[in-house]
């Protein structure tokens, strides 16, 4: 027996057999009894390199079709030629046939040739060498992360503890999530989207566990996420005692209290289709629609999306919130299937990384899935007025298309997620095009923390961006809501309420705790934007000042 420790992502306790996920990029097997061959297929590896290098070079050339400084054009052109250079291809092919993987062969050939720049006496040549090397490393990383070299996912036939160095939301959702008892990662990011999925599914999870991948497949593991501890091969009595102490409960009390604010769950992970009772009680505060399809091997068609959305929407009683966010494939939310982005038009470069064709298909499916209901369609990661107009225009066009075909559809409202600095700075203008703001605190926190990684502190920069967005909404008389990791923090409730926030959406795991906090405030009236409070927030400069402000709100009201 030995124990490891890490950062709790989703609380709870679970015990079971470890299933260790490792990469196949270097030709290793998934499990000790995996019948797959351990040797690399040279033809497969060479084809992988040729396809990836041609695709990467094409992306660089495509980037040069727009305005760019001459130095960037020269750099991208040089890298494009370098990746597809016949001599490089010959050397890489030679190494692959000698038994190396495509990423290792590229790393050896590319970086060895580029190392000559580091010994150059000319400072400009050295600088060029660093830039070339950075792009070459980016290509190698892309090759490593391609779908062909992604981790092999086990076929789970019984409950298991998933152990991996890291895992994307798409990779996780390829698994039978109902068979995942707990997740232990050697890496992982507490603010990442996998954590959101795991909390929603209420799967005990611990990240940043040093030595996690030393756990052997088949070993018995106890995950005590309440205390951030992983015990490998625990004594039976120890495991039984810890499992008995687990206090987690799915119970939710009926709510007949007038809260004067809206509280509703954010959902999206697959298990919610069958098990989430919060839908029938509180509606859907935000459907993170991309999570339903990240693990799909192919792009879902319209009928498939209609059926999936309808299964959720039919559970929501009339009058309860019903809001769905369109696909957001940014950051770590890359789907298994390939999504091409627009090459031209107002949605070229759209931060959600979804193209117009797929977006229209999803909009029609959302409208069809909620006939004669009121549906809020939430558009994420908007940063330009032209995007906002294009997106709301697409929604109207899709509704007219359904009407022309005589297909029943939902009554809809357009909602913008405010989660970029650009949207905050132009909040008043965006508000004129939206029926509601939904402030995405997780994404805003990443911008507010840059260049550092976001932590758990509620910083003055984040507080000011939220306040500015709320002011823009107030001036346009548009309601405002809060989503993301800070929406679930009870101590921040008075802060949000004084900025006029009347809509909160959190994962169902946190919903009851937040509801109890709202009830404890005993709100006599609804939230109201307080101009004087806004001015106080905008004058904050330090973490101590924002902490003092929040503490005073909680103790003095």
Distance separating the two termini: 50 Å
Low-confidence stretches: 24-38, 63-69, 247-254
The fraction of residues in strands falls at 15-25%
Which structural class do you get from the secondary structure elements?
alpha/beta
What is the overall silhouette?
A: globular
As a whole number of angstroms, the C-alpha radius of gyration is 25 Å
Count of helical stretches: 21
What is the share of helical residues?
40-55%
Biggest sheet strand line-up = 1-8-7-3-4-5-6-2
Largest sheet: 8 strands, mixed
Q: On the 0-100 scale, what is the average pLDDT?
A: 83
Number of strands: 16
Walk me through the structure.
The chain has 557 residues and is of the alpha/beta class. Helices cover 44% and strands 15% of the residues. The protein is built from 21 helices and 16 strands. It has helices at residues 42-63, 70-83, 86-97, 102-118, 123-144, 169-173, 193-201, 236-245, 272-275, 278-282, 302-313, 356-369, 385-404, 421-425, 427-431, 441-449, 460-475, 493-498, 508-521, 531-538, 543-556; strands at 2-5, 7-10, 13-21, 160-164, 180-185, 205-207, 220-224, 229-232, 262-267, 284-288, 322-325, 374-379, 411-418, 436-440, 480-483, 501-507. An 8-stranded mixed beta sheet has the order 1-8-7-3-4-5-6-2. An 8-stranded parallel β-barrel has the order 9-10-11-12-13-14-15-16, surrounded by 6 helices. The radius of gyration is 25 Å and the shape is globular.
């Amino acid at each position: 027996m030995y124990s490891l420790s890490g950062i709790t992502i989703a609380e709870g306790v679970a015990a079971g057999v470890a299933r260790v996920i490792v990469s196949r990029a270097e030709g290793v097997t998934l499990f000790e009894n995996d019948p797959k061959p351990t040797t690399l297929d040279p033809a497969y590896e060479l084809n992988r390199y040729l396809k990836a290098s041609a695709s990467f070079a094409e992306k660089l050339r495509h980037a040069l079709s727009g305005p760019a400084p001459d130095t960037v054009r020269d750099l991208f052109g040089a890298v494009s030629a370098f990746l597809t250079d016949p001599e490089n291809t010959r050397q890489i092919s030679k190494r692959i046939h000698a038994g190396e993987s495509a990423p290792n062969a590229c790393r050896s050939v590319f970086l060895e040739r580029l190392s000559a720049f580091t010994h150059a006496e000319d400072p400009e040549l050295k600088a060029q060498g660093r830039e070339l090397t950075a792009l070459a490393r980016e290509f190698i990383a892309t090759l490593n992360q391609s779908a062909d070299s992604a981790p092999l996912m086990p076929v789970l036939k019984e409950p298991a503890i998933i152990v991996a160095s890291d895992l994307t939301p798409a990779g996780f959702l390829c698994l039978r999530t109902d068979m995942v008892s707990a997740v232990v990662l050697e890496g992982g990011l507490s603010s990442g989207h996998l954590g959101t999925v795991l909390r929603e599914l209420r799967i005990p999870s611990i990240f940043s566990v040093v030595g996690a991948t030393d756990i052997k497949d088949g070993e018995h593991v106890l995950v005590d996420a309440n205390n951030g501890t992983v015990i490998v091969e625990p004594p039976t009595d120890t495991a039984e005692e810890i499992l008995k102490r687990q206090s987690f409960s799915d119970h939710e009390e009926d709510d007949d209290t007038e809260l004067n604010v809206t509280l509703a769950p954010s959902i999206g992970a697959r298990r919610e289709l069958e098990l989430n009772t919060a839908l029938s009680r509180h509606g859907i505060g935000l459907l993170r629609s991309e999570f339903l399809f990240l693990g799909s091997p192919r792009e879902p068609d319209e009928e498939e999306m209609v059926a999936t959305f309808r299964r959720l929407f039919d559970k929501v009683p009339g009058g309860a919130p019903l809001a769905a966010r369109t696909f957001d494939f940014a950051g770590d939310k890359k789907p298994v299937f390939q999504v091409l982005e627009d090459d031209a038009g107002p949605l070229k470069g759209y931060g959600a990384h979804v193209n117009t064709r797929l977006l229209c298909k999803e909009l029609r499916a959302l409208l069809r899935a909620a006939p004669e209901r009121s549906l809020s369609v939430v558009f994420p990661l908007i940063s330009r007025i032209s995007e906002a107009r294009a997106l709301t225009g697409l929604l109207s066009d899709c509704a007219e298309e359904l009407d022309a075909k005589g297909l029943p559809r939902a009554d809809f409202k357009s909602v913008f997620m405010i989660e970029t600095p650009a949207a905050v700075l132009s909040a008043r203008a965006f508000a004129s095009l939206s029926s509601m703001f939904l402030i995405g605190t997780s994404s805003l926190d990443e911008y507010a923390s840059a260049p550092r990684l976001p932590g758990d502190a509620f910083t003055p920069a984040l507080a000011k961006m939220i306040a500015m967005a709320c002011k823009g909404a107030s001036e346009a008389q548009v309601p405002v809501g809060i989503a993301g990791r800070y929406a679930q923090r009870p101590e921040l409730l008075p802060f949000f309420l004084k900025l006029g926030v009347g809509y909160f959406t959190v994962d169902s795991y946190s919903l009851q705790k937040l509801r109890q906090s709202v009830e404890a405030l005993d709100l006599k009236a609804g939230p109201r934007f307080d101009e004087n409070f806004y001015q106080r927030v905008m004058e904050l400069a330090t973490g101590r000042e924002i902490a003092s402000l929040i503490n005073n709100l909680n103790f003095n009201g």
